[in-house]
Amino acid sequence: MTDKLTAEEASTELPMLETAGWEQDGDAIKKTYQFKNFVEAFGFMTRAALWAEKMDHHPEWFNVYKTVDVRLTTHDADGLSMLDVKLAKKMDALAGD
Description:
A hairpin with a 2-residue loop joins strand 3 and strand 4 (67-72). The chain is globular. The chain has helices spanning 7-19, 38-55, 82-95, and strands at residues 23-24, 29-34, 60-64, 67-72. A 4-stranded antiparallel β-sheet has the order 1-2-4-3, covered by helices on one side. It is an alpha+beta fold. The model has no long low-confidence stretch (mean pLDDT 94). The N and C termini lie far apart (30 Å).
């Protein structure tokens, strides 16, 4: 089982994610990515899916054409964990953010 973010981890990590465009959504974080077209959006999702599988942590996401909406939370922890933080940072890197 993965542990929920501590208050110290949250106060350190969440402001950095917010600067990168992530928003808190209850016990989750969310972000919308915009790409040039569907192929780029789908390519991002494919690369992110490979990393998510390696991390054994899978996003909630939705794709329409060039837009990918992502929501991250750790159900086992009943809120945000370092897995969410790590996957959010990896997704930003994959998207070129």
